[in-house]
Amino acid sequence: MNLLNVCTLLVATSPTVKPYGLARNSVILCRMQTNTVFQTITQRVRNHVNSTLSDSKCLQLAIAAAMRDHETVSGFLLPHHLAKQVDHCKHDMGLRPAEWNQLFGANVSPIKDAGMGEFVASSCFQEQPTKLENALKLTLQEHEQSLMWKKPWHRLVLYIAMHVEYSDDAIFNSLGTVIKADQRRIEDYINEIDDSGVETLAFSRAIELVSNAILGC
After folding, report:
1. Domain that holds residue 215
2. pLDDT band at 30 (very low <50, low <70, confident <90, very high)
3. Distance CA 102, CA 153 (A)
4. Phi, psi of 168 (to 5 degrees)
5. In a domain, 18, yes or no
6. Domains: count for the chain
7. Which residues, listed in sequence order, are joined to residue 164 by a DSSP beta bridge?
8. What are the contacts of 18-22 at 24+ separation with CB within 8 A?
9. How far apart are CA 125 and CA 116, in angstroms?
10. Do 47 and 55 touch, CB atoms closer than 8 A?
């Protein structure tokens, strides 16, 4: 089911639907705006890589191409010859900051859990929440941000945000605010990621889950 069909389904059958506490009109508007952005992303990725890629895979690759260090993740997601194409057109196909805000901004909620809750609680991801909490220590004490932090969607989005080229903007927009005193800890965490390298399995699974969750796969 694509996002346009999801929007129609929400309007037609769910007069009181409120994913993650959002009002119905906000949900519908959000889905329609997301659909427009997503169509742009999928077309761009398919033009650069392969026209047969699934919707979810297109979004995963766009996120991967926006990473500071994308090669291992691209190589994990695609056969070698296609991963090389991502290397050559990374800057053209990567997720833009404005697209990030539309898909992963503070007011965006996924259509379904898609396994996010189980993954966030798994051994594969167990170290990341503590690292994120340390980096965002004061911000996550704010009322709205503390509520967001309880949800697997936001935990995965923030984890992914720490890896993209425009991480400062991505983190800010995904939380709605960042306490200035946290900035040094955020930089330290980002430097740790860059020094130790991407945890390919965890990151690849994270972007797969958030892509499926926002698409309703």
Report:
1. 114-217
2. low
3. 15
4. -60, -50
5. no
6. 1
7. 67
8. 19/109, 19/110, 19/111, 20/109, 20/110, 20/151, 20/153, 21/109, 22/107, 22/109
9. 11
10. no
196 vs 29 pLDDT, higher one: 196
Q: What is the DSSP string of the chain?
A: --HHHHHHHHHHH-TT--GGG--HHHHHHHHHHHHHHHHHHHHHHHHHT-TT--HHHHHHHHHHHTBSS-HHHHHHHS-HHHHHHHHHTHHHHSPPHHHHHHHHSTT---S--TTHHHHHTSTTTTTHHHHHHHHTTTGGGSHHHHHHHTSHHHHHHHHHHTTBTTHHHHHHHHHS---GGGHHHHHHHHHHHHHH---HHHHHHHHHHHHHHHHT-
Any idea which residue has 């796969």 for tokens? 217
91 in any annotated domain: no
Provide the pLDDT confidence category of residue 50 given band limits of 50, 70 and 90.
confident
Instruction: Give Dmax (Cα) for the chain.
Output: 50
pLDDT, tens digit, 9 for 90 and up, residues 66-122: 999 888 888 888 888 887 777 777 788 899 999 999 999 999 989 899 999 999 999
Q: Is residue 163 part of a domain?
A: yes
Supply φ then ψ for residue 121, to 5 degrees: -90, 0
Residue 63 lies in a domain: no
- Count of positions (residues) in the chain: 217
pLDDT value of residue 134: 95
